[in-house]
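[step 3/7] inverse_fold.run input=structure_tokens len=194
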């Protein structure tokens, strides 16, 4: 499992922000510093949000607020009884194994259909990369999804095994391609066919 310090606006891991990103022009080092300010406190203990604001080194900024919001949205940080808690790696891995937002939720729950397989597998691999799973974890989750969702049983694959299919998408993981366009296109085909 990896944790990359992504921009809380556009999710970039470089100084090149998407056009219109609220943090366009913010240096990569500032983004990383905001992440480490929060994580250094949360990795030591659970704290309330006000205590977190007071515990970070230096002055709390809008960037800190946005990073905290992104960490919550990505399910890295959760609130338990009024305290913020950084999830342990295994607990996080279990939470993100099942996408909970569209269009990935439909793909995950319904499975893919012939005509959508390439985009569906692409989207699942890219999603698991985005949330910080290692290649081995992303591969394992995608193979498991292919089998459990009924996707593999529906056929339409040239490959002889799910593992072979997923291995052919390793470049998606390595290049850090986004999942949204592929997932949107796959969901449209799934919705028409099911």
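[step 3/7] decode complete -> sequence:
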């Amino acid at each position: 499992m990896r944790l990359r310090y992504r921009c809380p606006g556009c999710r970039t891991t470089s100084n090149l922000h998407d056009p219109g990103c609220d943090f366009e022009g913010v240096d990569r080092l500032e983004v990383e510093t905001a992440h480490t300010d929060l994580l250094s406190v949360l990795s030591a203990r659970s704290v309330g949000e006000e205590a977190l604001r007071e515990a970070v080194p230096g002055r709390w900024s809008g960037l800190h607020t946005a990073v905290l919001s992104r960490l919550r949205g990505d399910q890295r940080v959760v609130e338990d009884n009024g305290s913020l808690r950084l999830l342990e790696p295994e607990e996080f891995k279990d939470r993100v194994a099942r996408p909970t937002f569209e269009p990935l939720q439909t793909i995950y729950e319904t499975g893919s259909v012939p005509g959508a397989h390439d985009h569906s597998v692409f989207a699942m691999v890219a999603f698991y990369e985005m949330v910080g799973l290692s290649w081995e974890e992303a591969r394992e989750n995608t193979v498991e999804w292919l089998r459990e969702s009924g996707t593999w049983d529906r056929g339409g694959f040239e490959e002889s095994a799910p593992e072979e299919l997923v291995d052919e998408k390793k470049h998606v993981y390595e290049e850090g391609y986004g999942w949204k366009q592929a997932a949107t296109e796959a969901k449209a085909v799934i919705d028409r066919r099911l």
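[step 4/7] annotate
The longest strand covers residues 77-80.
The first helix runs from residue 28 to 42.
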